[in-house]
Amino acid sequence: MANRIMLNETSYHGAGAINEIATEAKARGFRKAFVCSDPDLIRFGVTGKVTKVLEDAAIDYEIYSDIKANPTIENVQNGVAAFKAAKADHIVAIGGGSSMDTAKAIGIIIANPEFEDVRSLEGVAPTKNPCVPIIAVPTTAGTAAEVTINYVITDVERKRKFVCVDPHDMPVVAIVDPDMMATMPKGLTAATGMDALTHAIEGYITKAAWEMTDMFHLKAIEIISRSLRGAVANEKAGRDGMALGQYIAGMGFSNVGLGIAHSMAHTLGAVYDTPHGVACAMMLPIVMAYNAECTGEKYREIARAMGVANVDQMSVEEYRKAAVDAVQQLSIDVGIPTKLSALKEEDLQFLAESAYADACRPGNPKDTSVEDLKELFRKLM
Ligand SMILES: NC(=O)c1ccc[n+]([C@@H]2O[C@H](COP(=O)([O-])OP(=O)(O)OC[C@H]3O[C@@H](n4cnc5c(N)ncnc54)[C@H](O)[C@@H]3O)[C@@H](O)[C@H]2O)c1
Ligand SMILES: [Fe+2]
């Protein structure tokens, strides 16, 4: 079977990239923007940096901000109604994965109204039409939702987060401007950065990985592991590196999938509202140790990309341990906890079944089971 690669039509990288939004919107003949952003970003003035660019270019816009972290079906449905009322012709998504994913779901349903229940979009959604054109501006580094064909929505009623995979949701333009990420507090920088590392590592070892995506993932692991500590210290080189590294990880994993660290993180997000990056960071070293036996020599390359010395002199056991240790150490250095106090024994069965049903699970290099997932969750207690 041939390998497919899908990326943005256009992307801009570097400080000041947001100024290109006006040029792109005008070149594409857009008249009115539907701005999707969350309430905190509006309060912190992050959204305002972009709406100022729109104002200066005399591009009309309306803001939609009924978006919570781990966005819900209701956030999407209210957004669909607001989009119709706004009579906009494109979406400018400004925020982390939550704002960008909500924007994608809204844009998909506007173009494919038969999916207005949202739930029917789970998995590979058979939509017929490309979504409303999206210009995506990430403010975390990050989910890389600006360059992925995925979005993740929470079903509050059923306590599930579900992944939707649909090439029709790919933003036409991504604006990756590290200045938009500079206001992130330490904890958020650490968590979202570990999410990006999880994308790079799970994407590198996932079943469908191949030479081209390996290139993206190894480069992403290298950039993220050398930049994350600096980003958490709010240093420019660290912020610049994370903006780029998380995007490169997205270029890879979006095209090949992830693994059970994500399945388990989605479940923790749905049940305990655990921030996605924190959940990924806690799961990653545990899942890496579990998967090691099914990864050939890949952990040697992960360890090398993370700056571990003398990997070529190591035995298989040594370099596998070195890779897991390097990830664990980075996570500790940036202040991620290793235990989840909310986790309860009586929830384990539901958590494990839910993670097993997640769309990322089949891509995991090692075939898993509900029982194995239960044991992996137990390690967080
Ligand atoms: N589409 C994908 O491919 C993909 C990949 C991974 C994760 N996700 C999803 O993305 C969501 C998580 O997104 P996220 O981790 O980017 O966080 P988020 O969008 O949920 O935002 C978390 C919090 O950080 C704040 N914030 C964001 N940027 C900020 C900034 N620059 N300064 C100050 N505060 C800021 C927000 O206001 C919010 O309160 C989850 O729902 C996850 O499942 C999607
Ligand atoms: Fe993620």
Notable features of this structure?
single chain; 381 residues; alpha/beta; 6-stranded parallel sheet; 3-stranded mixed sheet; 9 strands; globular; binds nicotinamide-adenine-dinucleotide; binds fe (ii) ion
Mind explaining what this structure looks like?
- This protein has 381 residues and is of the alpha/beta class.
- The protein is 50% helix and 11% strand.
- The chain is built from 14 helices and 9 strands.
- The strands form 2 sheets. The chain has a 6-stranded parallel beta sheet, with helices on both faces. Strands 5-8-7 form a 3-stranded mixed beta sheet.
- A hairpin with a 4-residue loop joins strand 7 and strand 8 (160-165).
- Helix 6 (186-205) packs parallel to helix 8 (236-256), helix 6 runs parallel beside helix 10 (276-291) and helix 13 crosses helix 14.
- The longest helix is centred in the middle third of the chain and has 22 residues, at 211-232.
- The chain is globular.
- It starts with 9 loop residues before the first strand and ends with a helix.
- The model has no long low-confidence stretch (mean pLDDT 97).
- The structure holds nicotinamide-adenine-dinucleotide and fe (ii) ion.
- The site of nicotinamide-adenine-dinucleotide has 31 residues, from helix 2, helix 5, strand 7, helix 6 and helix 10.
